[in-house]
Amino acid sequence: FSPSQPLDASVDYLIIGGGAVGLAVAERLSKRKGKSTLLVEKNFRVNEETSSEVIHSGFYYPINSLKTRLCIRGKRLLYSLLFSNHSNQINYNDSPTVDSSFIVDSLLVPTSLENSKSLTIPYYRLGKWVIAQTDDEFAYLTAIHEKSSNLGIPTYFLSEKLQKSQEPHVNAMHVLVVPTTGIFDSHAFMNWLEWRIIDNYGDIAVNSKVTNIIPGNDGDRRGYIVEITSTNSTPSKIKIFAKSVINSAGLYSDKIANVILPPSHHYKIYYVKGHYYRYHGNDIKVSHLIFPVPPKNLVNLGTHLTLDLNGRMRFGPDVLYVQRPDDYGINDDESRKDTFFNAVKTYLPRIKKDRLYADYAGIR
């Protein structure tokens, strides 16, 4: 296919989606000398969505699965970036709203833009506890310990005495510690990627929705004709030739793929919403992520406890199948709150129900 009308632009790499994956791909491709890179994002800015901001260790899924391999490699790459570039530690002890046990590392990244900007990516490798309340669940921990060893992921069991001294508010019969689990500021990380793309002379177009992709050519170059519609107040359409197109559209990646695939090969994403509840109060202190043994169906990892970089606790997520990828509404009814409370109090018995508040919901 050759366009009957002149193309508006031509690039080597066109990346669809300005989330963490799209930004990371664009940052890497923009380093290639003599190549042009364009990232397009339908929202009014990149870095618009959110996540749990947990750096996972990678042992929950089958050993040879792609998810396991990517999780382990991604964790190592991310920590390598953070460790090799961080220049100081941020001590939040002086903040009255923050758990004083938190010491958070920070990656300080200078950029060449204006020679005056620096971006920080706060992170904390605080570790995760996977906890068992029964002998059957302990058997699961033992299997995870052996599996982790085969994957090169360090884990170890904690004695009852150390359990009580490290986390006096946590109730558990057995604890498997995963020291490489951490948390980080994913939005700061994506801001850093965005600056790197710009610094590498890549381009980012927001308010730009991909509406069609057609295999085609620009002269003697084969590639794709990508039709893009502006989503701002004055809609317009352009056509861009791209030698390579990378689909990083997240929850909309099936729709992007189906534009170019035959109907017999179409994808369909099933959307699962998860709610999180936040705990308000200083009566309970926890310094690790706490994950109960997951349900046997592995639809989710159970109602676990995560911490943000300010030391505040939140619990979740649950599982709710929904029809739309933008269904972020919080279904905060009493029965849902009861479900969260009953799940959490098995390992945090001093928790108070009236201090649980719906925090946010997202598509998992």
TrEMBL record:
<dbReference type="InterPro" id="IPR006076">
    <property type="entry name" value="FAD-dep_OxRdtase"/>
</dbReference>
<keyword id="KW-0285">Flavoprotein</keyword>
<dbReference type="InterPro" id="IPR036188">
    <property type="entry name" value="FAD/NAD-bd_sf"/>
</dbReference>
<feature type="domain" description="FAD dependent oxidoreductase">
    <location>
        <begin position="12"/>
        <end position="364"/>
    </location>
</feature>
<keyword id="KW-0274">FAD</keyword>
<dbReference type="Pfam" id="PF01266">
    <property type="entry name" value="DAO"/>
</dbReference>
<dbReference type="GO" id="GO:0047545">
    <property type="term" value="F:(S)-2-hydroxyglutarate dehydrogenase activity"/>
</dbReference>
<protein>
    <recommendedName>
        <fullName>L-2-hydroxyglutarate dehydrogenase, mitochondrial</fullName>
        <ecNumber>1.1.99.2</ecNumber>
    </recommendedName>
</protein>
<comment type="similarity">
    <text>Belongs to the L2HGDH family.</text>
</comment>
<keyword id="KW-0560">Oxidoreductase</keyword>
